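Worked Example 4.2. Consider the chain below.
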Amino acid sequence: MKFLEEARKKMNKTLLVIIDGLTSAAIEKATTPTLDYLIQKGAFTPGVKTVTPPITLPSHFSIFTSLAPYSHGVLTNTALPNMSAAAQSLFGHVKSNGGTVSSFYSWEHLRNLSLPGTMDHSFFLRLRQKQDLIELAGIAACHILHQTPDFCFVYFEWTDIIGHCFGWMSPEYLEAVKMVDRALGLIVEGIVREDNYHLIVTSDHGGKGKNHLENFPEITRVPLIAFGPDIRENFRIEKEVSLLDIAPTIAALLNIPPHFAWEGKGLTQMMEKKPCLGGLRQAS
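Applying the procedure from the previous section yields the following structure tokens:
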């Protein structure tokens, strides 16, 4: 146990925010002062490659296990996913390296991203109106500020809900993006003041019309923003990036090695300090 305590002392705290159904075009067109600030002060790419199928649960499992859907075994938005025994979730990996993990989400299926007993803190709030989004963000911001988990995941669903109802890039969708940006701002305000967290903001898929099943760039390419004390300022990520690269990147930011089964590569080119971790696969 002493080893785990020492390992935790060396961890850099990291926050992952997934904005369901966010497109890069929406960041350009909607009013997004928080996202604009993070892009200016951090690293950014508009074209992260999603997975097939580009739907919420398979994409989230790919983000957290650094495996393609046919490798981790979750291919639909099922309430009872049958994840491969070989897959290791980011939550469990951080926990096994001595870290504390927290999660804030509004879609119940996401509870399956971690095995029972893994989470130190988990909070679920179903979104029935847009004000619930602000409540979820406020609760997450308060927890992050006072409990300082080593790794925290926050899920914003509102953009996907509105995209399916009114269509991606509709006025209603752009207003939803604006609302999510406001919610994100509650969290960013705290971590900027404390200067003790790295932040990754990305999406699981984009959207076109009222859906996201086809192979269009608006669906299969999503933004990624990285921000924090070890992230290069105003840095454009030019290399090809996949959702599978997110878990290894977060491991590098946390200063822990990647899990051996992960297929993605850490995005170390955007970091001011290169992680000195044996076996870390870097994106080329």
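Residues 276-281 have pLDDT under 50 and may be disordered. Residues 2-270 form a domain with the Alkaline Phosphatase, subunit A fold (CATH 3.40.720.10). Compare this with Example 4.1 before moving on.
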